[in-house]
Design brief:
Helix content is about 55%, strand content about 5%. The protein is mainly α and about 280 residues long. It has one domain. It comes from Pontibacter burrus.
Length: about 280
């Protein structure tokens, strides 16, 4: 009896439904990203002299920034012609279509607003928030796995997945017929390991960490990995087939440069983290 050289993947993306209400794995994991993130961030903020009330407010900013940014990122980066011609479709978020690069921009902007309105040091906020964003990214990529979406290219590696519920036609062949790289798992594992690294650094050093170190590490490592893993992915939209680098890679490059720039500044002129994220900079 021969063993399969791939892992059959036929998970139903819907957990259960009650009449017209459907509970799906992706939605559950997306929600858990914020639930777990809020609990971890509360522990961080309280340990540094802030209150859980601050976490409630920043979580609201985060949710709004993430959802709006991710949705606009998908519509403008991957299918602008369709959505600009049918703007009402932008609001139909339940149909799917969220972009991680758009979510990143949305988070950065929403946290800038939070820092300005509530008198926090912006970089202090970013250094703490990337810890929970890394964990959230891992959970969301697991949601993509449960949806059998964002699949990898055909491969014969022994851990390849055969996505039996993916009905895309790629190069004239049904995507479900061939074993493929489980790129969702690759990204989920990367994000989880990044969470462990960032949380471990914070827990051990806390306020001795120079401002910007955690944010710089997060952006540089996450989007460098994202750039590399794109070589193993199938393109998400047709116009990417004519590009030497796909949209995910092009959007990752400026974020990698931002991360490297922040790390360079940390190396050249390290500034101590301020107690509780006070706005005034240390003398």
């Amino acid at each position: 009896m021969s063993l399969l050289n791939f892992i059959p993947w036929n998970v139903d993306p819907e957990i259960f439904n009650i009449g017209p209400i459907s509970v799906r794995w992706y939605g559950l994991l997306f929600a858990l990203a914020f639930v777990f993130g809020q609990r971890i961030l509360s522990r961080i903020y309280v340990a540094e002299g802030r209150t859980e009330g601050d976490v409630d407010v920043i979580t609201l900013y985060m949710i709004i920034g993430t959802v709006i940014g991710a949705r606009l990122g998908h519509t403008l980066f991957y299918d602008p012609e369709y959505y600009l011609s049918n703007p009402i479709e932008i609001l139909k978020i339940w149909k799917g279509g969220l972009a991680s690069h758009g979510a990143t921009i949305g988070i950065l902007f929403s946290l800038w607003l939070f820092s300005r309105n509530h008198k926090f040091n912006y970089m202090w906020v970013l250094d703490r928030i990337v810890i929970v964003v890394a964990l959230g990214g891992a959970l969301i990529r697991l949601g993509n796995l449960m949806n059998s979406e964002i699949i990898g290219k055909v491969t014969d590696v022994p851990w390849a997945f055969k996505f039996e519920r993916n009905h895309e036609i790629i190069n004239g062949v049904a995507a479900s017929l061939d074993p493929r790289h489980p790129t969702q798992l690759y990204e989920a594992l990367c994000a989880f390991l990044l969470f462990v690294l960032l949380y471990g650094l914070w827990k051990k050093y806390k306020e001795r960490l120079p401002l910007g170190l955690l944010f710089g590490l997060f952006v540089t490592l996450l989007f460098t990995f994202r750039f590399l893993v794109e070589f193993l992915k199938e393109n998400q939209v047709e116009f990417e087939d004519t590009m030497s680098l796909n949209m995910g890679q092009l959007l990752s490059l400026p974020l990698i440069l931002i991360g490297l720039f922040v790390l360079f500044r940390v190396w050249r002129n390290p500034k101590p983290a301020l107690p509780g994220g006070k706005l005034q900079e240390a003398k």
